[in-house]
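Quick one - inputs below.
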Amino acid sequence: MANEPEYLDETPSQTAGPYVHIGTVPNFLGIEGVYAEDLGARMLDEHTKGERITITGRVLDGVGAPLRDAIVEIWQPDAAGLFPSPEERRGAADPHFTGWGRSACDFDTGLFRFATIRPGRVPLPDGRLQAPHVNFWIAARGVNIALHTRMYFPDEAAANAEDPILARLMAEGRGETLIAEKTDEGFHFEIRLQGHRETVFFDV
Amino acid sequence: MSDDVTPRPRGSFYPRRRDDWHPPALAPRYRSSTLRAPRRALISIPQGWGEITGPVFGQNMLGELDNDLLRNFARPGESPIGERIIVHGRVLDQDARPVPGVLVEIWQANAGGRYRHKKDGYTAPLDPNFAGLGRTVTDAEGHYEFRTIRPGPYPWPNGPNDWRPSHIHFSLFGSGFAQRLITQMYFEGDPLIERCPIVNTIPDPAAVDMLVARLDMNASLPMDALAWRFDIVLRGRRSTYFENRPEGN
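Output:
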């Protein structure tokens, strides 16, 4: 069968389990001296361009309890909408911005926290502009395959209204689950795994 | 931007087989999934720059002992208790091409089945010479290697008498954020594999088999360490950038 396409299967996912911190954020856990610092702990330096923002949030289970053992990662463009990645071919991103952050949820409060910048706008493959947003990835005990979602900003009403993905979700009554709240400190994003306000998760 | 010097796939990732290959979100025999599994269907969206790009991790960020769990926490002249092993393999994509530059992070219990973690209260003792974490970045051929000890099995609160098989947790970054993967590696011949509710969240035995490392005598070090081979396959990606790329984008 010479023309039969042959592809390998992807290695299947398994849960990160409750001890994910050991491998991903050992210093946060208190295992010091193996890695100098936890990866993803710093996204910025003093030269990073853009508006400094703080994003906090929680991941809530089906009874509204915050997950205290989850790990959350974000991936976002710089202030100009460019990703600091070799795969980015529209231009050179800000060399003082990593674009990637990793935060364990607090063992007591369940809060995750990122010090970052407000992202620029990025076009979809068809050229339509998306609203500023931050890509989220969540892994935890009880989560068999990590979850992808995105956070939009409550003070970007005009851009949000013309975002093709958000507009479609708004029409279905679920878009609000992706819009963070403005707080004194910055923005707060509650991720609900279940319930009538279950966050939209994406198959990307 | 100029064309790539080396041809490598840069387009969108192949769809994930979520229905019959990866574990479903809800798997009631794994009790923790019941309150944590989203109940609504995932929403499919086109892969854009945010999905096909991802952070970069170079060899230069690694410490000399980062992939040597026998030594990266041990006191001088000492080493952890347990079977000394090498765990190695290649990271490929679904087109069987090696994936270089993949950050591979691992974590595991010690030989007694105890994690160095404040939430682990299992009776087995901590090993003062073992932290249970390591990391490396795949080379140009997609190869990675760790030295460690074989982790022990341990009981966990789920069913009345559930035990985890010996396993090592793996976290992988490919070339794009949509390629991100977390999984676990098991050891060939372990009778606890087929009894494990977490393993059994995976519906297809052929998929489980991909997680079972094989004894690799050729890579073993005589009078030192047995080797286990664990190849990992990340999502493949189309050769070309967005097929419907508009003018001037």
